[in-house]
Prior knowledge:
The protein is an alpha/beta fold. The chain contains 12 helices and 12 strands. It has helices spanning 16-23, 39-49, 89-105, 118-123, 131-139, 166-169, 172-188, 215-229, 240-243, 246-249, 260-271, 306-324; strands at 4-8, 32-37, 54-56, 67-72, 110-113, 144-148, 153-156, 196-200, 233-238, 254-257, 276-280, 286-289. A 12-stranded mixed sheet has the order 3-4-2-1-5-12-11-6-7-10-8-9.
Amino acid sequence: MLPRLALVPxxxxxxxxxxxxxxxxxxxxxxxLVALADPDALHAxxxxxxxxxxxxxxxxxxxxxxxxxxxxxxNSVPVAFGRPDARNAQxxxxxxxxxxxxxxxxxxAGMVTGPVQxxxxxxxxxxxxxxxxxxxxxxxxxxxxMLANDVVRVALATTHLPLRQVPDAIDAGLLRRVLGILDxxxxxxxxxxxPVVAVLGLNPHAGEDGHLGHEExxxxxxxxxxxxxxxxxxxxxxxxxTAFLPGKLRGFDAVLAMYxxxxxxxxxxxxxxxxxxxxxxLPYPRVAVDHGTALDLAGKGLADPSSLEAAVAxxxxxxxxxxxx
Length: 325
């Protein structure tokens, strides 16, 4: 039985709806998809692309190019390509939470999400820091953000923090939680029986024995030693400037970066088009595209569907593994 995944386009004025329409042109062999979206936005995207689209009841399987099962989430006002409207912010959030509820109830085996426009959601009167945080709060779980492509998996100890706040945020409790979630995900969602995780230092040269900072000596090394004693295979702390060399990466199943721009530029340089964003620690798989709403491309047929295709394939594999296990 194929896993049933919720598909949420995200910001309706961006490229999300047209990427979903492109995805519907090739019926999948690894999962079934149900979009949670506004039908008019999807039809407008299909018309702009000149592609067929047949919206089906949510329980009817897709069998032809252009078929897309739909659970309706209506926008408040019509959508114009490239022009987000704060009055549609609630519909964007409702689609995400509807997918999350479906995952928790067992109706969906996982969810795939397109890009959202955070500023527009906040302008709509909904405090919103990101979809990762929304889903974590909804599920009541600690989560870890990880981005992945065919070259490397990079998890983040801290996410969207100003750089001067990062050292204070990295304490023993945080590192224990993050590494525990990451280790479990490698085993349960990726099927890696004995994962090896490279842990980056916070400072240049991983602190160089205290000459360039003490966070490694005071915090990171004691946590790694304690977790190694519990059976985790952790390498580090490693200098970030050499940890991503191809010869070293081949020995790691994932890399834990201490902050956002320490690890993600390398990942995006090594394969941005096929990169995906995963939320580890939820009771269900959640995978997102690793790009923004691309408002300047919306409705022009120029958006690359590679990241969404990779996100669906990744989520389908994770969901199938959970269903089997």
